[in-house]
Amino acid sequence: MSQDSGSKKFAEAERARLESELADLKRRRDQLRADLQGDAETVGDRGDAAEALQRAEDLGGVEEQISRLTWLLAGGNATVDGQLPNGTEVKLRWPDGEEVKMRVVNFIEETPAGAEDTTLTADSPLGLALFGHKAGDTITYRTPRGEQKVTLLAIKQP
After folding, report:
1. How many domains does the chain have?
2. What's the confidence (pLDDT) of residue 99?
3. What would the 3-class secondary structure string for the chain be?
4. Which parts of the chain register pLDDT below 50?
5. Same structural domain for residues 124 and 150?
6. Residue numbers of the domain that contains 12
């Protein structure tokens, strides 16, 4: 067997492993969502609230792992439907008049040191809301703190 065919078999085996892991994570995500829905429908003590909070944190971690595996399986540089591509640059104006330039990243860990205030993850509420818009659009989006508005002044995709 040549080294090239050995590498190909390894890559195929690794891809199958990642796809299996992704399927498992999606099942876990669905179960966590169902559990959280049940938590919302019942009233309990502080212990119940702590468990619900832990499940919500677990769900966030599972969602992040799903995003990473999807990204890896897409070749590590592909875009996800409904999200701005990694490296997109946007200029935004907030309602108070403040303007800021931001760079879109796939994962928060890709944030350059010192650039935390000017980095935007593609799957954040604002990142998702910006998808499909053009310069001049005013976008309304939901956050855990309520509804927010921002004006997209410029957008430059890589």
Report:
1. 2
2. 96
3. CCHHHHHHHHHHHHHHHHHHHHHHHHHHHHHHHHHHHHHHHCCCCHHHHHHHHHHHHHHHHHHHHHHHHHHHHCCCCCCCCCCCCCCCEEEEECCCCCEEEEEEECCHHHCCCCCHHHEEECCCHHHHHHCCCCCCCEEEEEECCEEEEEEEEEEECC
4. 1, 3, 77-78
5. yes
6. 3-73
Angle at 133 between CA 129 and CA 134, to 5 degrees: 145
Distance, CA of 86 to CA of 98 (rounded, Å): 24
Q: Is residue 22 part of a domain?
A: yes
* Residue 69 sits in the same domain as residue 93: no
CA separation for the pair 121, 94 (Å, rounded): 18
Residue 127 lies in a domain: yes
**pTM of the model as a whole:** 0.52
Same domain flag for 27 and 66? yes
Cβ(152)–Cβ(104) below 8 Å: no
